[in-house]
Amino acid sequence: MEINEKIEYFVIEKKDNEVLNFEKIFNNNNPIHIEIGSGKGELLQLQSFFHKNINYIGVEVKSKRIMNTVKKLDIKINKNVRLLNLFIDENINKWVKPQTISEIIIFHPDPWPKRKHHSRRLIQHDFINSLSYLLKDNGFLKLSTDHTDYANWIIKHFQERDDFEPIFENDSQYIFPEDHFTTYFDELKESEGFPPQFLYYRKIKSLSERKVANV
Ligand SMILES: C[S@@+](CC[C@H](N)C(=O)[O-])C[C@H]1O[C@@H](n2cnc3c(N)ncnc32)[C@H](O)[C@@H]1O
Question: What is the pLDDT of residue 80?
Fold first, then answer.
């Protein structure tokens, strides 16, 4: 199959200010899972193959990685995947309708280890607010990181809120979840001695129900 044909099928060309209509894009109303920073697309390829009744949106800022992903996908086998070549920030809530997403995955987000760069970390309260706005009630936000300081940062942010509950206890975040497909970064970081921590949360309150403290 021609690569151009695959690009046209899989890659959504979103116009500025366009709010995406997933029912129209997939021609069904199956649950939507979004992967932010989908990298080389291993997870999208496998998940879409094993879960045909879920629609997957992969968002990745690097166009080369979007192309790596397109090459892995097949129009007949992975017809429940679409890709967006975008930089994601809290403005995601401007182009995804509220309460439409069942699961958001962010695995190995860039850790920005230097303190002066911490403001560039994706996980910030404004960003979590936006994700909360998109998620359905009881929707899942699945995070992983191989960076201990970023893991502690994420845990602290969610401890400061009452709209998500952790679905891991004590040190269970180090155990690979049963349904997890190992990615390139999981293997790379584990071989370097940095095993990923899986920090999974469930949305238990909508933004309007939250007791807003300082966040
Ligand atoms: C360390 S890689 C992890 C890839 C994949 N999630 C995995 O587990 O194998 C992080 C990816 O997120 C992408 N990325 C980082 N920040 C992003 C953002 N704000 N919006 C979209 N993609 C982003 C990077 O280009 C990179 O491909």
Answer: 98
Residues 45-55 have a mean pLDDT of: 97
Contact criterion met (CB below 8 Å) for 104 and 33? yes
In whole angstroms, give the CA distance from residue 181 to residue 44: 10
Q: Residue 110 catalytic? A: yes
Residue-wise pLDDT for 151-166, tens only, equals: 999 999 999 999 999 9
pTM assigned to the model: 0.94
The whole-number pLDDT of residue 67 equals: 98
Q: Measuring from atom 14 of ligand 1, which residue has the nearest CA?
A: 37
Q: Which atom of ligand 1 is nearest to the CA of 42?
A: 9
Give CA–CA dist 157/178, Å, rounded.
26
What is the 140 CA–ligand 1 centroid distance (Å)? 19
Burial of 29 per CB tally in 10 Å (0-12, 13-18, 19+): exposed
**What CATH number is given for 3-11+22-209 in this structure?**
3.40.50.150
* 124: helix, strand or coil: coil
pLDDT at residue 213 greater than cutoff 80: no
> Per-domain residue ranges for the chain?
3-11+22-209
